[in-house]
Class I SAM-dependent methyltransferase
Amino acid sequence: MQEPETFEPEATRRASDIVESARANRGWWDRNADEYQVDHGTFLGDDRFVWGPEGLDEVEAELLGPAEALKGQDVLEIGAGAAQCARWLAAQGARPVALDLSHRQLQHALRIGGSFPLVCADAAALPFADASFDLACSAYGALPFVADPVLVLREVRRVLRPGGRFVFSVTHPIRWAFPDEPGPEGLSVSASYFDRTPYVEQDEEGRAVYVEHHRTVGDRVRDVVAAGFRLVDLVEPEWPAWNTSEWGGWSPLRGNLIPGTAIFVCVRD
């Protein structure tokens, strides 16, 4: 009996609008949440707040502020996945809400447990009243995958109280110029850093099943400002000696030479 063929999506660079990007990425994360948590759950932990594959921990970074100052703060985590960061925030006495586009990712949050709300929603249309939160955070959530990041940033600003802080991490823009490979083959520039054409994986009929959007560093800064935030820091974590893990194109080899993550610290005045 002939085995059914396994479809491999075609990788390409092409335009992808807000609707297509959201639909594709919701489906991708629902289909791949189980594998993602198996592959990366140990590194992420159940209740750690890690900003990216380098392993920068909020315990040390304090980008949201000192841990003791988080007690009693209303915090929105965007693109929460299994809500590891929200669980850490709750342990500090904060009142987190974990939001994700993927229902399956939030099912993993339920599996691990926690007493905070889980919300399945699009970051571009946050289902919260104005000025609902003191802080917001996103560790590789939403912003790399949306066609209009300013729309998301404006929504986050809307739900923050005056003086509130939003900290988000994304793939460092320089990485788009290099192949997504952890070894030596990933050290040579293969594409233009200035090419903003989205990376799209599509099926046989040309429908997107995964989309990621590229913004340069300057684009990200302009997006933050256009949304009404004040940028107070841009953190580029260095690869620590203790971290021997590979994660996609992230690795000790590459991490010691080029940045893999950019973290934007923004304030709503």
